[in-house]
Fold:
Amino acid sequence: MAASGHIALLPGDGIGPEIVSAAVKVLDAVGDFTYEEHPVGGASIDELGIPLADEVLEKCREADAVLLGAVGGPKWDTTDPDKPRPEQALLGLRKGLGLFANLRPVRPSPALVDASPLRPEIIQGTDILVVRELTGGIYFGEKKRETDSASDLCIYTREEIERIARIGFESAGRRDGRLASVDKANVLETSRLWREVVTDVHGDYPDVALDHMLVDNAAMQLVSGPSRFDVIVTENMFGDILSDEAAMLTGSLGMLPSASLGESGPGVFEPVHGSAPDIAGTGTANPLATFLSVGMLLRDGLGADEEATRVEAAVDKALESGARTADLAGGREAEGIVGTDEMTEAVLSVL
Structure:
């Protein structure tokens, strides 16, 4: 039986509508889905005055999965704390849907080993899953602003750390059995609690090897020897930074998918790259991270493993055929570069 389900589409801003439209074609090639599209981010600010409307959040709750394009852009940039910002939609979605675990796989396609800024012998064999906590930490703590000072409170609870640690251990148990827990326990009290709780949870997963790492060391190790990592579990801000660093191991942010999951209800699946307003509407955006996010939506959101594998394999084969968007082309001649539509067709032809 073909994969099926109801998917809430949140195209958002910049290149978001272009890559989500392309992703729908890929979904239609592997299953039978229904869709409902809603504004989010800057598009929602323009239309409704707020980045995420309650009725849109409710429609997302009713869906089987949510596919998000990207939010943000200079049009809505502001330092006024009283003005809405597109990025608030992401925090609202995570909170409203109870999403606490962000999964970001980093596996350079064999055809793109030469596109990485690292030497091929360093990048070869890299296959990392970054598990980032989404609901705690400095992003959600109390914020204060005065004329000449500002503060952001960083708080973590034992419960928040324990549930993300279990996701990390369980993910590692299904992979190579190695978990790196990243913190800043030499400086931060929240990190000392983090390390204590992760160590306690490790007792339930004796077959997984646990390595505690300070975040600055982890950042260095990611570029000096990325293949040493299997699964990385870390708190909200560290995960945000490290996963973007890890993304560049693939040669482009345009290749990195993500899934945000909770204990129940729909997950949100989105490419890690931003809205790229400088190329919006030019037809040159790389849709592959969105296609790989579709793969995660199929596997982690709908339990359609076979269809997910088909999509991921099609992306690899399209790259093996030589298709490259501008961000992946490196020094190739202009005639070797394809646009969003051509790359989509290259993947669809394999499917």
